[in-house]
Write a structure and sequence with these properties.
This protein has 141 residues and is mainly alpha-helical. The protein has one domain: Four Helix Bundle (Hemerythrin (Met), subunit A) (Up-down Bundle). Helices cover 75% and strands 4% of the residues. The chain has 5 helices and 2 strands. The protein has a two-stranded antiparallel sheet. Helix 2 packs antiparallel against helix 3. The chain is elongated, with a radius of gyration of 18 Å. It starts with a helix and ends in an 11-residue tail after the last helix. The C terminus is likely disordered.
Length: 141
């Protein structure tokens, strides 16, 4: 009989990694959302971080699609588009450009969706860590 423990361990590691990815992405979105759209605004730090997260996000999205996890895949797909949008902005944007970016993020509900999925991913990671291994008897029988 083949043990499913390595697959569960791999899934748990993936969920932890996706949770960390969503944490970092959430920081970008919150920072952009809370930046005042006055004058010229330097968004180079957020843009650089978004650029570094695009490929990582793509990998996690494809893994979620292959794992038949459509809810996570859908949010990561929307998130990927937002990260690409942010990464294509110049170092500095006008207040009007920042406002437009903030409105696109807000109108899609991306930050809210990221928070919801992040809490589900972390809960799933915790529940898988606490679940007894296949083949082991639970002490609550």
């Amino acid at each position: 009989m083949v043990s499913k423990t390595p697959a569960k361990a791999n899934d748990r590691v993936l969920m932890v990694a996706v949770g960390d990815h969503l944490d970092r992405t959430q920081m970008i979105l919150v920072e952009l959302e809370n930046t005042r759209a006055e004058g010229t605004v330097d968004i180079s730090a957020e843009r650089d971080l978004a650029q570094s997260l695009v490929n990582e996000n793509r990998l996690y999205r494809q893994t979620a699609e292959n794992s038949k996890d459509p809810e996570i895949a859908s949010v990561l797909d929307q998130l990927e588009r937002v990260l690409i949008d942010i990464s294509h902005h110049p170092d500095s944007v006008s207040g009007k450009e920042l406002e437009e970016l903030q409105q696109r993020i807000e109108s899609q509900g991306v930050l809210f969706k990221v928070r919801v999925i992040e809490s589900k991913v972390k809960a799933r990671s915790r529940s898988e860590a606490a679940a007894p291994h296949q083949g082991e008897k639970s002490s609550t029988l």
